[in-house]
Amino acid sequence: xxxxxxxxxxxxxxxxxxxxxxxxxxxxxxxIFHNEQDSLLHGSNKKTTVKVYDFRRPSKFxxxxxxxxxxxxxxxxxxxxxxxxxYLRIATQLTVVSVEQITYEEVINSLQNPSIVSVxxxxxxxxxxxLDINPAIGFVMLDRLLGxxxxxxxxxxxxxxxxxxxxxxxxxxxxxxxxxxxxNVFKIDFTLESQESNPQFVQIVSPSEMVVLIxxxxxxxxxxxxxxxxxxxxxxxxxxxxxxxxxxxxxxxxETDVEYLQKLKNKLQKINVNISVRLGEGTISxxxxxxxxVGDIIKLDxxxxxxxxxxxxxxxxxxGLPGTIxxxxxxxxxxxxxxxxxxx
Length: 344
Fold this sequence. Notes:
The radius of gyration is 33 Å and the shape is elongated. α2 packs across α5 (161-182). It folds into two domains: 63-269, 3-Layer(aba) Sandwich (Chemotaxis protein chec); 275-336, Surface presentation of antigens (SPOA) (Roll), CATH 2.30.330. A hairpin with a 4-residue loop joins β2 (116-123) and β3. The strands form two sheets. It has a six-stranded antiparallel sheet with strand order 1-5-6-3-2-4. Strands 7-8-9-10 form a four-stranded antiparallel sheet, with no helix packed on it. It starts with 6 loop residues before the first helix and ends in an 8-residue tail after the last strand. By secondary structure, it is an alpha+beta fold. The chain is 38% helix and 24% strand.
């Protein structure tokens, strides 16, 4: 018997297959109509629900997982806000304003160019996290760190080498608090890997991959701006099961107000502050100022035996007597300046 089918035999098989498919397809369709008719006649409350599925933007994170991620970042905002207030010496508040899952391409297209984009490693997880600091608030931080009042720039620009080093030090400190915020769910060591000014050059995952984007509003003094944290699903996939309310609230520390204040006090005690002594003040005319030469003596309004003011930052806090300690100048504290007191 020949193993090769003739054309007539092939046509016969195809015809039989087509008839069988038509026969099978009629049964489910008839069954569907029969069930619908039966439910209408007997008053069944059963409803057929249809859920839209977007193949271009598939949902990777559940609502509970997004709520847990929001709780983690609200904790981070509390820790980082306290640190920045002391470090920048100005009132700073961080607030989570949005948590959404979108594609990485949408994230990159939404970021300003130039911007301050940092790529973070997340050991022991495999994958990176993206931190974007909008220039509107990034330059406010830099201005404070470099001794300014905390003003932003009119037009966004790339960071200078010095500005980049200064800001990297600040970001490294913030990442310590970010790791602490995640510790209730999983211990992750976030470290700064690289920095870019053009978001288009940062490709931590493919453009179509789903990520969770956390929007944080930063208010420093009177200035406001946005911080954005982008975490790919692929990075969180190994611990996605731990992103639930039970683990978050079950492992979070139940700190009392006294414990929290003590913890805050310990952190504040490690921060360095600038102190200065103002020996005195005086006035001279413009003519005298123009004639000042090396060796001239300018008379101040402070007497030689009078107390001088010692400043913490820009605030007068103590009165003291100037003197020397070995080969260095010093001041002996005499009393504290009370709030609202005209010290001298």
